[in-house]
Design a protein that fits this description.
Elements (H helix, E strand, L loop, with lengths): L1 H15 L9 E6 L4 E7 L2 E6 L4 E6 L5 E7 L7 E7 L2 E6 L11 E6 L4 E7 L12 E4 L2 E6 L3 E6 L7 E6 L4 E2 L3 E4 L2 E5 L1 E2 L8 E5 L7 E6 L6 E7 L2 E6 L2 E6 L7 E7 L3 E7 L2 E6 L2 E9 L2 E9 L4 E7 L4 E6 L6 E6 L15 H4 L2 E4 L6 E8 L3 E9 L4 E10 L2 E8 L6 E9 L2 E9 L2
Antiparallel strand pairs: 1-30, 2-3, 3-4, 4-5, 6-7, 7-8, 8-9, 10-11, 11-12, 12-13, 14-17, 15-16, 16-18, 18-19, 20-21, 21-22, 22-23, 24-25, 25-26, 26-27, 28-29, 29-30, 31-32, 32-35, 33-34, 33-36, 36-37
């Protein structure tokens, strides 16, 4: 009987072989550009901080042409780099490696679509050299990081009179991103000058006159570049790939999902979809619940994707790519992810046939991707080569579109395995080779 089941599985495998479909992420525009330290949208335009200069404002027309309006220039040795915008105020950090004592490293400007006004500056620390050091606005405060190691909180309730209200010194952190979460900051970090690398730090922000580190967490031997959250689920762009944590207990985060890529760099979130840019292209993950996080889409690229910014009023995702064929700003149509289904949201008959796993062969973890032409009940099950049912990876209703799931086979012996996708009126099969 086992031999008969094995023969049946091999027949299903041969019958299920099909061509891989094309990516559905659609590029709306490519705007060639050199290095960009940061960019943010404001009204109908965009602020861009290039390498070694001020922050320039451009309006954007319907053909994605950028029309120059003005440049915020602090003068002297200052070269504004990282910045954030809240209402009509722009908060920026000095990106110059040269600092003159007694001059600001933190700047505040009032901005409009036609001009800017310098309001105030602070010098709570020396040189920042903020090529990637993050700065965010949250609840009337600015939080920023100074490389390497120091964190600052500045009260900007009155933007013309910013006040330093908290700091955390000498953490030795290399920090690339931070987000507010409850009364804390969640911060990507690694330890400068040591072999031990952490994944993220948690800082308590509601204590007066100080910032308090709760701890550093993560057990991967590499570091994290960016992070976003949906409630207590934290999504991180990690040197190893896409890593997801449950942070219900902030002092004991639990890793619940991992997808390996060649260095995850940046993240953006739209509803329950997480976009990740990496060294090899773009990934889209769909979060259903903590037990169901699926790869929805992948689009390859020849150079690293370093920045992502959402322009939700236009249903666009803008990305900065560091060189290559798509060097500069790349604009994606993301209307299907913000509730409007257009042609880019349709799944072709050819794409419906996708069922594959990567890597294959694999040593412990592989990722099975598939597409559904119509919504409905889905079951994805792993079988041994003799036909024995080993594990059910997916069981339940899913929407039409691209899906993916991680199979962690670390407790399975080496050998050939089959995975069967059952959908209404059809089933397809794939084959995976586990090697040790």
């Amino acid at each position: 009987m086992a031999v008969l089941r094995r023969v049946i599985f091999i027949v299903f495998w041969v019958a299920a072989s099909a061509a891989y479909g094309v990516d559905s992420l659609e590029i709306k525009a490519h705007i060639p550009w050199g290095w960009i330290s940061d960019f943010e949208f404001y009204h109908d335009g965009i602020f861009i901080a290039p390498d070694g200069g001020g922050i320039s404002y451009y309006t954007i027309d319907d053909s994605f042409n950028l029309h120059y309006r003005y440049t915020i220039d602090p003068g002297g040795f200052h070269t504004l780099s990282q910045f954030t915008i809240s209402d009509s105020f722009l908060y920026a950090l000095d990106g110059s490696p040269i600092h003159t004592s007694g001059t600001p490293v933190f700047f505040v400007y009032a901005v409009t679509e036609s001009t800017y006004t310098y309001l105030a500056g602070l010098e709570p620390s020396g040189t920042i050299w903020a090529n990637f050091d993050p700065i965010i606005y949250s609840g009337g405060n600015i939080f920023y990081h100074k490389y390497p190691g120091d964190y600052f909180r500045i009260d900007v309730t009155d933007p013309s009179d910013p006040q330093l209200t908290g700091k955390l010194r000498n953490t030795s952190d290399v920090c690339l991103s931070m987000i507010p979460y409850q009364d804390t900051l969640l911060i990507t970090t690694r330890q400068q000058g040591t072999a031990h690398l952490y994944n993220f730090r948690v800082i308590k922000t509601n204590a007066p006159d100080t910032l308090i580190s709760i701890g550093v967490y993560g057990n991967r031997p590499s570091y994290t570049a960016d992070l976003v959250n949906i409630g207590s689920i934290l999504f991180t762009a990690h040197l190893d790939g896409f890593v997801v944590y449950d942070i219900t207990d902030l002092q004991n985060p639990e890793e619940i999902y991992f997808y390996p890529t060649t260095w995850g760099r940046c993240l953006a979130r739209v509803n329950n979809y997480i976009f990740m840019g990496g060294n090899d292209g773009w990934y889209v993950f769909k979060y259903v619940n903590p037990d169901s996080i699926l790869l929805d889409e992948y689009k390859s690229n020849d150079r690293r994707v370093l920045r992502m910014r959402l322009r939700l009023d236009q249903k666009e995702l803008w990305c900065f790519v560091d060189g290559g064929a798509l060097g500069g700003l790349v604009v994606f149509d993301i209307s299907e992810y913000v509730g409007i289904k257009g042609e880019t949201g349709q799944v072709s008959e050819a794409h419906h046939q996708v069922l594959k796993n990567y890597p294959n062969p694999f040593r412990g973890v592989t990722f099975i991707s598939y597409s559904l032409k119509e919504p409905g009940p889905v079951e994805l099950t792993i079988y041994s080569c003799t036909g024995e049912k080993m594990k059910t990876l997916v069981s339940g209703f899913q929407e039409a579109g691209n899906h993916g799931v991680c199979w962690n086979a670390k407790d399975f012996p080496s050998g050939v395995y089959f995975y069967r996708l059952k959908i209404p009126k059809s089933e397809r099969m794939g084959k995976a080779l586990l090697v040790r």
